[in-house]
Amino acid sequence: MSLNLAKKLFNPIINYFGSKKMERFTEEPIVIGGCGRSGTTLLLSILGAHPNIYSFSKEIGIFLEWRKKEDESDYLYYPRIDRLNRFVLMNKIPVEAKRWCEKTPGNIRNFDKILDYFDNRVKLINIIRDGRDIMLSKHPKKEDDYWVSPERWVNDVKAGLKFKDHPQVLTIKYEDLILNYHDLIVEICDFIDEDCPEEVYNWFEHTNVKKSKAWSHSAQKIHSKSIKKWEKEENKERVEEIMANDEVVDLLEQLNYL
């Protein structure tokens, strides 16, 4: 049997049973976005410690591909819900989980479509981080390349800031998550209409997301070693390249990083 034929035969079955399993999630989903290396995985793991939330342990790119609707639906596009159904079907979901949480950095470029698709019945969290620290991260597969370019950071941050006043979108900073965890996690839980149980404060012990390709280690306690790496002497040349970009400087000033 060819792969294409197998997909045609089994995908409808997987979608059906996956969608039935999805019915256990009765509350608004939570979607995380932000420029790569901004802390999206950390936030996903933290929320995965909440008893009411099931965080998807890997990026499945639900909202990266959109197909145009051909009928008269209220929204024009729909995402890769088949990937969502497949992931849910193939994984064990705790009985108490009443909502799901997904993170893919590229979600930040599709907040408008996500809001339309869910008719605003969704909670979006945009996480921002000092671009100078982000642009120091080396690509894991290309040793001579940096993971995030100045252009990508500027474009992704600007895309998210368009929704900073939207009632269904919460914009936070990575640095606040690290340095002011207690207050910020209370704000996040209030935004998603959840209590803040003990599991959230000791998230690394309770999260269902203990490993990720974005990490070189398993989940561990929050520390501040990754903040202001740009101040180190060995990063001086790279930081000078970054700060030569006027758009980067303007955005850093706007975000009070300068």
What is CATH's topology name? Answer: Rossmann fold
Helix/strand class: alpha/beta
Per DSSP, the total helix count is 12
> In percent terms, what proportion of residues is strand?
5-15%
Describe this structure in words.
- The chain is α/β, with parallel strands linked by helices and 258 residues long.
- The chain has a single domain, classed as Rossmann fold.
- It contains 12 helices and 7 strands.
- Strands 2-5-1-6-7 form a 5-stranded parallel β-sheet, with helices on both faces.
- It is globular, with a radius of gyration of 19 Å.
- The model has no long low-confidence stretch (mean pLDDT 91).
Topology diagram in text:
Layout: H1 3-22, E1 30-33, H2 40-47, E2 53-55, E3 67-68, E4 77-78, H3 81-90, E5 99-103, H4 111-117, E6 123-128, H5 131-134, H6 150-161, E7 169-173, H7 174-179, H8 181-191, H9 198-201, H10 203-206, H11 236-243, H12 246-254
Parallel strand pairs: 1-5, 1-6, 2-5, 6-7
Antiparallel strand pairs: 3-4
Helix pairs in contact: 1-3
What are the main properties of this structure?
12 helices, about 260 residues, 5-stranded parallel sheet, alpha/beta, two-stranded antiparallel sheet, 7 strands, Rossmann fold
What is the compact description of this entry?
The chain has 258 residues and is of the alpha/beta class. The protein has helices spanning 3-22, 40-47, 81-90, 111-117, 131-134, 150-161, 174-179, 181-191, 198-201, 203-206, 236-243, 246-254, and strands at residues 30-33, 53-55, 67-68, 77-78, 99-103, 123-128, 169-173.
